[in-house]
Amino acid sequence: MSLPPGFLDELRNRLSLTQVVGRKVTWDMRKSNQAKGDMWAPCPFHQEKSASFHVDDRKGFYYCFGCHAKGDAISFVKETENVGFMEAVEILAREAGMPMPARDPRAAEVADRRSKLAEVMEAAVQHYRLMLRSGSGAVARDYLVRRRLPEAAQDRWHIGWAPDSRTGLLQALGAKGIAPELVVEAGLAIKPDDGGAPYDRFRGRVIFPIRDGRGRAISLGGRSLDPNARAKYLNGPETALFDKGRNLFNIGPAREAAGKGLPLVVAEGYMDVIALSEAGFRGAVAPLGTAVTEDQLRLMWRIHDEPVIALDGDAAGLRAALRVIDLALPMLEAGKGLRFAVMPGGMDPDDLIKAEGAGAFQRVLEGAQPMVRLLWQRETEGQVFDSPERRAALDKRLRAALARIADPSIRAHYGTEMKRLREDLFGTGVRAPRGFVPRHWQQKVKAAPMPSTRASMLAGSGEAVEERLREAVVLSVLALHPDLVETFDTALERMECTDPAHGQLRTALLRAAQAADPRGTLSAMAGPELETLRALPHVQIVPAVRNPEDAVMARLCLAEEFAKLEARRTARREIAEGVEEVGEGSTPSDEGLTWRLGQAAEAVNRAGRAQNEDSSDLGEDRAAMSGYLQSLIDGQVWVKKRH
C-alpha cells in the first residue's frame, strides 16, 4: 500500500530512535551522552563486546562501526524483527499512537486472508498436539521417547501427531467453523484434481510446527513413522504464508540466542535443531526441506556474522556443504563468512549429542573450519599432483573459484591463503616475493631512475613508504573536511592501511563523521595522532592541506590519492600473478604476460593521467613506475636467456 505524503516524517518525528533501539541493546553510559541523544552500545546485528553501535537521536539514524549496519527506526525494526516494510511501519505507528492510513482494498484483502490462514494454522497445531496425548498418539510418544525427547521438550516445541486418518483434521477444524477451502489454502489439506473431496495432507506423521520470526505458525513438517513411506519428511507446500526458501526452522528463538552471544548453528533437520537447542545450543536453525538458498544465507548473516554449518559427516552432508560454498562465494562481504563443522563418523548432531553429550558437539563446533579450507579440500582431496599439467589444472580451478568472489578485498585474502596452502601441498616456494618489483626480475632488468624520481623526496624509500605517505595525505585532508567522509566512505573503508596508526585514525574518522560535532569528536578521539600526521613535510606541502578552506580542492585531492593507491595495488597484484605463473614452471604465452604487465602499467598511468604535475603531486613516481614496467615488457623478461 502507498502511504500519504508526510506520514513517515511524522512517524519518525514522534518516535525517539533511542527508545526504539533501547529495547534491543544495553547502552554504554560511560560513552553515551543521553542529554544530546548521542548513544553507544554493542551492536545488536553482530556478536561483539565493544560499544561500536552509534545512535544519533537528533538525526534519527544509527550506524555500526563494526558491521556497518545503518538506517533509521523503520529499518531497525525490519532487521531486528524480520518483518517487511509495512509491518515495521505498523509496529512503530502503534507505538507512536498514530492510526495507519486507510489501506488499498486489494492489499487489505490480502492481509486479512493471511491473518485467517495463520489462525487456521495455529488451530491445526493445537489439534495435532491434542492427538499426541490421545490413545492414537502412543506410537508417536514411543518414538519421541526413543529419541530422548521428554514431555517437557515436546511441549516447548509444540510437537504433535497426525493420526493415519484421511479427514481427521478437516473434520476437527470444520467443527470449529473453519471452511475446507481455508484448510486447503493453508496447505493442510489436498484437493484432488478430479474434483473429489479434499483430504488431510499429513497422516501417520509426527508434526513439527514451522514458525516465522514473529512466532506465527506458517507451515508444518511431518516425520513419517512408516519405514515404507515414500518420504520420511514432508513439509507443507508454498502458500501465501509460507515461502520455504525465505524461512528457517526455529528462526525466532535462534535470533534471540545469537543476540546474546551464542553461535548460530545451521543443521539439516528438525530433530537436529531440537537436540541442539535442548543441549544448550539455542542458536540452531535448519533449512526447510531444500538446499540452503541465497535468501536464507542473507537471513543468517542478518542474525550472525559467521554462521556455523553443522552438516552430517556422510557423503550427502559433504555434498551439501560444497553446494553452500558455491552459493556463498559471490555473496561474501567483509565480516560476513561461514564456518563448517563436519560431524565425525557419519553422525548427525542429534546422534553425536546422544552418544557423547553436549561437550562432544562443543568440541566439534570449536574445530569448525573456515570456508576457504573446505574449498581447498574440495579441489585437492584424493588427487595426485605429480606433473606440471595437473598442478596447472588445479591452479585453473582455483582461479575460477576465486573469480566468483565479488568483494576485491576478500578475493585477495582468499588468494593469499590459497597460495599458502599450495606451498604446503607442493613443498616448494612458489609464493611471489614481497614488494612491487620481484627481486629475481630486478636482477634481469635494471632500469635507471628518471631524473624526476631522483629529485623526489621518496627516492630510495620504496613502495611501502610511498603508500604510507599517500595514506597520510588522505587522512589529513579528511580530518580537515570530515563532511567528505560520507562521500569517500567506501574507498576509506577499503583502504589497506600500511601503518596500524593509520588504521586507528581511519576508524576515528568514520566514527566522528556520525557525530553531531565531527571536528570536536575527532580531536577528542585522535588529536595527538593527527598533529603527528600533519607534521610530516610531505603532508604540509599538499595544496589541500595548505588551503583548508578550499573544499573543491580537497575533494579532487582525495579522489586522486584514492585512485593512485588503488592503481598501485592493482598493478602489484597483476605482476604478482604473472610472477606466480613464471615461478610455477609453467610456460605462459608471451601475449598473456605482455597483456598482464601492460594492464599493470596502464593502471598506474590512468591514475595519474590529466593531473597537474606540481611539487606536491606524485606524478613523477607514476611516470617512473610506468616506464619501468614498459622496460620489462620491451625486454621480454619472461623469456629464458641463453648465456
Automatic annotation (TrEMBL):
Q: Which Gene3D superfamilies match?
A: 3.40.1360.10, DNA primase, catalytic core, N-terminal domain (3.90.980.10), Zinc finger, CHC2-type domain (3.90.580.10)
Q: Which GO terms describe its molecular function?
A: DNA binding; DNA-directed RNA polymerase activity; zinc ion binding
The catalysed reaction is:
ssDNA + n NTP = ssDNA/pppN(pN)n-1 hybrid + (n-1) diphosphate
Q: Zinc fingers (CHC2-type): which spans? A: 43-67
According to the record, cofactor stoichiometry and binding are noted as:
Binds 1 zinc ion per monomer.
What are the required cofactors?
A: Zn(2+)
| EC numbers, comma separated | 2.7.7.101
Query: According to its UniProt record, which protein family does this protein belong to?
Result: Belongs to the DnaG primase family.
Q: Which HAMAP family match?
A: DNA_primase_DnaG
Q: What is this protein called?
A: DNA primase
What species is this protein from? Answer: Gemmobacter megaterium
What is the organism lineage in this UniProt record? Answer: Bacteria, Pseudomonadati, Pseudomonadota, Alphaproteobacteria, Rhodobacterales
